[in-house]
Amino acid sequence: QVQLVESGGGLVQPGGSLRLSCAASGFTFSSYYMYWYRQAPGKERELVAAVTSSNSRTTYAESVKGRFTISRDNAKNTVYLQMNSLKPEDTAVYYCTADRRYWGQGTQVTVSS
Fold first, then answer.
1. Where residue 56 falls among pLDDT bands split at 50, 70, 90?
2. CB-based contacts of 74-80 (< 8 A; 24+ apart in sequence)
3. Do the beta carbons of residue 24 and residue 7 sit within 8 Å?
């Protein structure tokens, strides 16, 4: 059974940091590109970051470049999103996905003072 389980979300003040994790099981994790998406209330889901299967290349949305870092540990079947210098506009439900084929349930990130 395929599972993607996100964790690490929560409430943080502007300027703070969070590290999201996504634990995968039920498929060959190391063969898949991994992505983080987010969806804010009333908005469409948008791509935040992506990492290749070998962890050799990453891409980011312009809005998070220089603040967020995506990485993965294929030995642990886990992908991470380190989020620094958080802004209120980063508030959203964050989802991890394997090749946009398998999706997690999401974790809420709220940036507010």
1. confident
2. 74/29, 74/30, 76/23, 77/23, 77/24, 77/25, 77/29, 77/30, 78/21, 78/22, 78/23, 78/24, 79/21, 79/22, 79/24, 79/34, 79/36, 79/51, 80/19, 80/20, 80/21, 80/22
3. no
Neighbours of 29 (CB within 10 A): 23
Question: What confidence tens digit (pLDDT) does each residue in 13-44 have?
Answer: 999 999 999 999 999 999 999 999 999 999 99
pLDDT at 29: 96
Contacts of 47 (CB under 8 A, 6+ apart): 35, 36, 37, 61
Asked if 84 and 17 touch (Cβ cutoff 8 Å), the reply is yes
In this structure, are residues 91 and 109 in contact, taking their beta carbons and an 8 Å threshold? yes
Rg (CA), the chain: 13
Confidence of residue 55 (pLDDT cuts 50, 70, 90): confident
